[in-house]
Amino acid sequence: MRKKWKTKEYKDHLWQCAIATTVPEFEHYMNELNKFDKDAFEWLKKIPPHHWARSHFSGRAGSDILLNNLCEVFNSKLIHGRNKPIISCLEYIRQYLMKRICNVKKVMSKAPGPLTPTASKLLERNREASVQYRARWNGTAKYEVYGPWHDQHVVDMTNMSCTCRRWELNGIPCRHAIATIHEMADSGDKVGELYTYVNKVYWLQTWNEAYSYTVDPIKGRAMWPKSTCPFQLTPPPHHNQPGRPKTKRKRSADEKYDKQMQNHGAGEPEKLTRKFVSVRCGKCNNRGHNSRTCKGQGGNAGSSQGGNA
Predict the structure, then answer these.
(1) End-to-end CA distance of the chain, in Å?
(2) Rounded distance, CA 144 to CA 137, Å?
(3) DSSP type of residue 221
(4) What is the band of 217 on the pLDDT scale with cuts at 50, 70, 90?
(5) pLDDT band at 23 (very low <50, low <70, confident <90, very high)
(6) Model-level pTM?
(7) Distances (CA, A) of 112 to 31, 93, 210, 221
(8) Could you read off the pLDDT of 149-185 as tens digits, one per residue?
(9) Ranges for the SWIM-type domain (predicted)?
(10) How much of the chain is in helix, strand and coil states, percent to nearest 5?
(11) Are 172 and 198 in contact (CB under 8 A)?
(12) Which strands make up the sheet holding 152-156, listed edge to edge?
């Protein structure tokens, strides 16, 4: 999309459609995009929304992540190991994972719990917003929750779901669910602690179990046992290219554009590529060639400038 529509307005419209949690909200922002630019709307409409729109997700993942940041973080850590032979690259990954597990365990030891630090912040933010909402009981396990700006939804405590779908998508009780839990507590029901309504993937105990395994240290290469394989693996023929070898991965055109926009917004000089730039001749003032290769394509302009010279 950034190849054809590059301004920030298109990006804002796209993200409004992507982060909408309900289908009516998604359709509303799609109509806003249609009013803004019909061509961009038709292009985006062809992509099935269950691939990119949160409103059409099933909620099975129990996560609020829409990007591939997890892959990008791991990819950025392999810059110094990707250009090494396979054994050295695997050793670099093993040492990195051993160090990462230890660092995460140090963070977990300082976390107060019972939720992870990020989940605790999200739950506290929803709890503060739930003060503006009121819940009405219908006699069963369902509640009608209403708040400012005509924000009204139905909370089902049996299925632990809300019609806003935020509780179902990310596994953390939304503001409507927390308001319902407070209403149940005021009515004398035993609701327990608030964190028990959070998906167990956000519990500190689950985090500890995920990092309970360790990477054992190994001896140096001189102490490794000799292989009994009758075949010897030889490296493929390699030719060193001229110039200094590149260690950074090649960025796509979209990433280059984002970097240029960030530099331009921060007051830094904007470095643009000369690819696809049409030069203009200084003699005939026509595009497609310069003054050295000019052969008088400009007609009168070229002859007049030539006579002046």
Answers:
(1) 49
(2) 7
(3) G
(4) very high
(5) very high
(6) 0.72
(7) 45, 30, 18, 42
(8) 999 999 999 999 999 999 999 999 999 999 999 999 9
(9) 143-185
(10) 50, 5, 45
(11) yes
(12) 134-137, 142-146, 152-156, 161-162
SS3 274: coil
- Burial environment of residue 300 by CB neighbours within 10 A (0 to 12, 13 to 18, 19 or more): exposed
Q: Which residue has the higher pLDDT, 307 or 144?
A: 144
Local structure of residue 229 (DSSP, 8 states) = -
Q: How many CB atoms lie within 10 A of CB 142?
A: 15
- Of 162, 151, 158, 155, which Cα lies nearest the Cα of 136? 155
Single out the residue of 42, 46, 201 nearest to residue 118, CA to CA.
201
Task: Count the neighbouring beta carbons within 10 Å of the beta carbon of residue 145.
Answer: 25
DSSP strand E in the chain: where? 134-137, 142-146, 152-156, 161-162
pLDDT at 56: 94
Q: What is the rounded CA–CA span in Å between residue 13 and residue 20?
A: 11
Euclidean distance between CA atoms 134 and 182, whole angstroms:
9
Question: For 119-139, what is each residue's pLDDT tens digit?
Answer: 999 999 999 999 999 999 999
User: Are the CB atoms for 254 and 3 separated by under 8 Å?
Assistant: yes
Residue 173, helix vs strand vs coil: coil
Q: Is 134 exposed, middle or buried (0-12, 13-18, 19+ CB in 10 A)?
A: middle
Name the residue with tokens 């595009």. 287
Query: What is the number of alpha carbons within 13 Å of residue 124 lying toward its C-beta?
Result: 9
Q: What is the helix (H) or strand (E) element at residue 240, kind and residue range?
A: none
Amino acid at 114: P
- Up-side HSE of residue 264: CA atoms within 13 Å toward CB? 9
Distance CA 161, CA 176 (A): 10
What backbone torsions phi and psi does residue 280 show, to the nearest 5 degrees?
A: -120, 135
